[in-house]
Fold:
Amino acid sequence: MQVHGHSEPVSVAAMQLAEEELARRNWYLMLARLFRAPPDAGVLAAISDLASPSAPGDAAAPLERAFAELADACRHASVDSVRQEYDTVFLGVGKAEIFLYASWHLTGFLNDRMLVELRDRMAEFGLQRRQDIGETEDHLSALCETMALLIESADPGLSSIDTQRAFFMQYLKPWFKGLCDAIEHSGLTDFYKHAGRAARVFLDVERQAFEFDEKE
Structure:
């Protein structure tokens, strides 16, 4: 298997997943696509078509509300403006406004020792970064994609909740909230503030579920 550039919309293993697990897998893949590169017209249309264009009510669950707001943002976004926003915020000229790399948020440095540890962990999973992908394995999109691959894996050892929980708790839990809050409240984000909010809400649901399962 390879990570960062998942090309199979629905794998054979994914088709056998329970509805909730398939939904989790699809959430991770959606976030991976949104943060790997600015979405093209097809991605924006696909996300916008998944929810009603009507504004969510106050009684809607936070995750449903966050997704509905993201879908609405996709519906009204232009490809050019989203691309410019992505480049400004996450790439920058010389230095990004917001880094999407775990090592930066956890240690203050890029390509730190934790990246070596992460690569070792992913090698244990049988995963490796594609040679045509520039971002390292600790990029948010790569970590989300890895979670999706674990969920859909036909290997019980990889798809087990214990494996998913251990990976999430080590490589996503410590920093996702700070990243998503920075994206949501940055003065430079318009479209991506909705993507950041949706990511924070979904990943927090995941965190709560993993912590609840661990206590049982």
About this structure: Residues 5-10 have pLDDT under 50 and may be disordered. The longest helix spans residues 192-215. The radius of gyration is 17 Å.
